[in-house]
Amino acid sequence: MTSQNSNSKPPAAISCAEFQEQLPDLFASGGSGVPEDPCLVAHLKTCDNCSALVRDLQYIADQASLLLQPTHEPSDNVWKRIQEGLDSDRANNASQHPSHS
Amino acid sequence: MEQQGLRMTETKPGPSLFKRNPPIAGEAEAIESAKAGDAEAFSKLYALHKRRVYTLCLRMLGNVSEAEDMTQEAFLHLFRKIGSFRGESAFSTWLHRLTVNLVLMHLRKKGLNLVSLEETINPSDDDAPKRDFGSHDPQLTGSVDRVALERAVASLPPGYRMVFVLHDVEGFEHNEIATMLECSTGNSKSQLHKARLKLRELLRQPCTPQAGLKEAAQ
Questions:
Q1: Tens-place pLDDT, residues A36-59
Q2: Alpha-carbon distance B189 to nearest alpha carbon in chain A (angstroms)
Q3: Pick from A25, A49, A68: CB nearest B134
Q4: What residues of chain B lie within 8 A of the CB of A68, using their CB?
Q5: Among residues A101, A72, A79, A94, which one has the least CA distance to residue B76?
Q6: Burial call B115-144: b when 16+ CB within 10 Å, e when fewer
Q7: Would you call B71 and A81 a contact, using CB atoms and an 8 Å cutoff?
Q8: Shortest Cα distance from B24 to chain A (angstroms)?
Q9: A7, B117, B208, B216: which has the fewest Cβ within 10 Å?
C-alpha cells in the first residue's frame, strides 16, 4: 500500500547543498530535523552523508542537556564579597533611616 | 521593573523552562525568609543556586574572573530585588534570566555590540562551520561525553556559544533569545544551527588540549 496515487510524480532530486540549506528550519522551534517535504525525505533516504549529518545534529542537541547539570563552583571569595555588599547595603540603609537602626 | 537597563520583570517562561527548573525542596521558605531580610535565607539561596549561576556565567564569558564577578553581581541584584519576585515563574528561571541580562549588559559595556550577531560577532571564515557535502567520517552518536562537549562549547566563537548555551542548554526559546540579544529570531535560529555544525566539526576532531573551561573543570 502506498500513499501516492498513480498520477503522482516522484519527488525532484535535490543536491546535498539544497538539502542542507533547509536544515536550520527543520531543527528550529524544537523540530527534530526529520523533514516532511517529499524532496527532502527522498534525499535523506538516499544520501548517507546528509543522514549522518542530521543524526549528529540531533545527537548534539540531545546531549546539550548534559550541560544543564552545573559542574563548576565559584570560589569562596564570591560569597564573601556578596556578604560585604549586603553589609554595605544595610549600613547605607541604617544611615539613611537612623530611627530604624 | 528596570534598573540600569536590567529587566527584572517576571515573564512567562516556555514549558521547557518549567521542566528544566523544577522547584527545589526548601526553596520557597528560603525565598519568603529572604524577602524579610533573613541572612540565613540568603545563604541558603546562594548555596542552592551558586553552581548553576556560576556555570552559566562561565559558559557565556569563558573567563573565571569575570564569571565570578558576574555571579557576585547576579546574587547582589537578586537579594536587593527579591521582594519583587512574586512566584509567577520558577525562581531559578527568574534568576537565570536576571543573570543572562547582567552578563549581556557587561558584554555591551565592554564594547561587544550584540545588536547584530551576524555583523558583530560572526566568526571569521576559519571559525565558521564547514559545509559537509562528501566526507564519510564516523558518526558522533554515542561517542560524546559531557567533558568533550563542555570543551567543544568553550571553544565555540562567542556568538555561536551564546545562542547554543541559551537555547540548547538553558532552554530559552528563540523569541526570548532574540529579545535578549536584540537580534531577529531568524538570526538566533541561524546562529544556533551554525553552532551545532561547528560543534560537530570540533567533536569529530582528535582530542586536543583546549583553553576555556578546563581551568575551572577541576
A1: 788 888 898 899 999 899 889 989
A2: 6
A3: A49
A4: 20, 169-171
A5: A79
A6: eebeeebbeeeeeebeebeeeeeebbeeeb
A7: no
A8: 14
A9: A7
ipTM of the complex: 0.75
Contact B54 A82 (CB under 8 A): no
Q: Nearest by CB to B54, which of A23, A74, A82?
A: A74
- Distances in Å between the Cα of B80 and the Cα atoms of A44, A86, A88, B77, B154 are 54, 8, 12, 5, 31
Query: DSSP state, A3?
Result: S
Are A67 and B151 spatial neighbours (Cβ–Cβ below 8 Å)?
no
Task: Check CB contact under 8 Å for B132 and A53.
Answer: yes
pLDDT band at B75 (very low <50, low <70, confident <90, very high): very high
Of A67, A68, A78, the CB nearest to B68: A78
Residue whose entry in the numeric block shows the C-alpha cell 537597563: B5
Is-contact B149 B168, C-beta < 8 A?
Answer: no
**What global pTM score does this model have?**
0.76
Residue B3 has pLDDT above 60, yes or no: no
Q: Which domains does chain B have, with CATH numbers?
A: 8-109 (1.10.1740.10), 117-128+142-216 (1.10.10.10)
pLDDT digits (tens, 9 = 90+) for B130-175: 666 555 555 666 677 888 899 899 999 888 999 999 999 998 989 9
User: Grid coordinates in use for A56?
Assistant: 549528529
Q: Identify the DSSP state of A37.
A: S
Contacts of A17 in chain B (CB under 8 A): 131, 133
State the Cα angle at B55 between A64 and B176, rounded to 5°. 65
Record: contact A86-B79, CB cut-off 8 A: yes
